[in-house]
Amino acid sequence: MSCCPLTYVVLQVPFIRVSCLRLMTDHIRMLLRVQLNTIGGDNKTFSSDFTLTGLFTQSAASGFLFSIICVIFFMAMIANGVMIFLIHIDPHLHTPMYFLLSHLSFIDMMYISTIVPKMLVDYLVGKGTISFIACTAQYFLYMGFVGAEFFLLGLMAYDRYVAICNPLRYPVLMSHRVCWVILASSWFGGALDSLLLTPITMSLSFCSSQKINHFFCEAPTMLRLACGDKAAYEMIMYICCVMMLLIPFSVVIASYAQILITVHQMKSAEGKKKAFATCSSHIMVVVLFYGAALYTYMLPQPYHTPIKDKVFSAFYTILTPLLNPLIYSLRNTDVTGAFKRVLARCQGDPGVSREGF
Predict the structure, then answer these.
(1) What's the confidence (pLDDT) of residue 1?
(2) What does this protein do (predicted)?
């Protein structure tokens, strides 16, 4: 069963990208007009620019922290890029699980790129000013990519459920068409979440102090900066968080509950070991990503502090894109085997070239 031929590569969703870019452009134009119309009104929104306080302080350790984040960013981009390359080039990895994993790596590369480069440049130039339109674009892209990852991680649990609980029907239940439906559903969920929250958030009236105590334009921080009645926004935010987090997380819980029951009924110790090895990588990624996101979006605002928000946000926006490919590669013999075959092929081993590729 081959879910992903060599032409499947990640960038094969042009209709989604074009539609999202057009919608984003229209929303940004509309929101910019709303924001500019409020300039000069009462004591709100005197400027169309915001100021990000950033992740780095003025302490002596800020340079060291800057270097660490630079290394993490480039390692995350390289690790995810290598993962996509290996899945694309090695026929042994042309399966539904790795097809979905390649898109997970692509999403990780995209959303870390919407946050970290701006933060690093701000530190180098010594100021954290961000225009309203740039903040809106960052917010839109970030919410879209993170939302897509929430849904994709949840649906990847279904793949593991089918592989372990219904292995004989796996080629049918995880066919090429089903893979693309899962992928399209993830992107649609992320885009819907972004399209719902971005106009509402960025059309709020912001107080005269437009200092964002964060290193990027994140939803809870933007909400604290807003003035006036925010009840409607908070309700929509709650609904979106339930859709983004609790529904996919429920899919994960239900899938792994069935997996545990099936594994418990297995008589073979080797079969149990293989099943746990298959699922452990996905479980680790889900716990890391959903854990930090649940704190950020589901914990009531009185329990939030700026420093905690920065730490948890840094964890799932900066560290997780690096940890995902490392967890899936270091704990996965298929990926490490593909990497060894590519190295052997590059060194000119004819046996590996014929056999592995």
Answers:
(1) 44
(2) Putative odorant or sperm cell receptor.
> Rounded to a whole number, what is the largest CA-CA distance in the chain?
75
What contacts 115, CB < 8 A, 6 or more positions away?
Answer: 138, 142, 215, 216, 317, 318
Q: What crossing angle do the helices spanning 320-330 and 269-298 adopt, rounded to 10°?
A: 180
Question: What are the phi and psi torsion angles at 130 (to 5°)?
Answer: -135, 130
DSSP E strand boundaries for 223-308: none
Record the pTM: 0.81
Which of 257, 319, 298 shows the shortest CA–CA distance to 72?
319
Could you tell me which residues are beta bridge partners of residue 206? 226
Query: Other C-beta atoms within 10 Å of 6: how many?
Result: 10
Query: Could you give the CA distance from residue 324 to residue 322 in angstroms, rounded to a whole number?
Result: 6
Name the residue ranges covered by the structural domains of the chain.
6-38+51-345
Q: Which amino acid is at 216?
A: F
Residue in this structure with the two tokens 């219904």, named with its chain if needed: 166
Tokens representing residue 248 in the block: 């996919």
What class does CATH assign to 6-38+51-345? Answer: mainly alpha
DSSP state of 51: E
Tell me, what's the pLDDT at 185? 94
Q: What is the pLDDT of residue 267?
A: 79
Per-residue pLDDT of 208-248, as tens digits, reads: 668 888 899 988 888 888 887 777 777 877 787 777 888 88
**What's the token pair of residue 103?**
């898109």
